């Protein structure tokens, strides 16, 4: 897509530079251009055609990268005020809540406001589909180290896909400002 868009940009730049060159090197008065309805029509339609030529491949790429046809695992995440509920839908109703650990229960090395009592366990090198919704108010399910942020909206089911490429603990958070916790 980058090469496709770059070729169109080069063509536009070449045509504009050529028009500037002709304007600077020829006489400034030309009776053929003063009333040219055909030229004005071309100037109007040509940018629309160029935008369509750039838009169609980018939309195709956008939808191809967003959809995983056969994920290894599907997890539904439901946002509540101050906790998340996770459902492993592929494993017959495995449901649990994940609460932030209060500061009194933190072990040395735990991260304040990030560590939880029940962590989500995911396989590495496997495509994972995460379905995200909310029970009460707007939330934003985010895992910054995976480059993920998806809004959780009551009554709407949003979807994101990702693949964890290395083992470890990935900390996520609600990135909405919604209260004291």
UniProtKB/TrEMBL annotation:
One of its GO terms (cellular component) is mitochondrial inner membrane. Residues 70-181 form the Cytochrome oxidase subunit II copper A binding domain. Its cofactor is Cu cation. Binds a copper A center. Residues 1-69 form the Cytochrome oxidase subunit II transmembrane region profile domain. It is a multi-pass membrane protein. Its main location: mitochondrion. The keyword Signal does not apply. InterPro entries: CcO_II, CcO_II-like_C, CcO_II_C, Cupredoxin, Cyt_c_oxidase_su2_TM_dom, Cyt_c_oxidase_su2_TM_sf. It catalyses: 4 Fe(II)-[cytochrome c] + O2 + 8 H(+)(in) = 4 Fe(III)-[cytochrome c] + 2 H2O + 4 H(+)(out). Belongs to the cytochrome c oxidase subunit 2 family. This is Cytochrome c oxidase subunit 2. The gene is cox2.
